[in-house]
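BUG: 3D viewer hangs when loading the predicted structure for this chain

Environment: internal workstation, default settings.
Expected: structure renders.
Actual: progress bar stalls at 90%.

Input used:
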Amino acid sequence: MSMCSKINKKAFTLLEIIIVVIIAAVLASLALPRFFRTIEYSRSAEAFMVLSSLRSAVQRCYVSNQGTYVGCTIANIDFQVPNGEPGTHFTYSITGQTATAYTLTATRNAFESGDNGVSNIYFEQDNSGITRSGDGVFSAIK
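Structure tokens produced before the viewer hung:
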């Protein structure tokens, strides 16, 4: 027996390595969008918490204004809205105040989300109750 016939070949071929890399890339391309969507929904918990507190403050303003939401702005309520605070992922606003209705909006900060601020969560309050909706990555919120 010659020395050459006893060499044991236990290495991966280049083709096997390329196939494994392709499979890993396909799996990553399927998993990453879902992962990022899950992260956004977990960050939306911040928005729901702040919007809930903001809603309570607007209701207190309604009572002190003798039954009207007019004048219940961010500056005139008894709640410190965390707009611009470090670590917050949303900017909050109160719009459309009438005697019987208003809209609370949490807008995703564009510099973090990369979607140019088109992802919003809306709470609309009127005499019939509260409706919740969203757009952008939050379009599934009802």
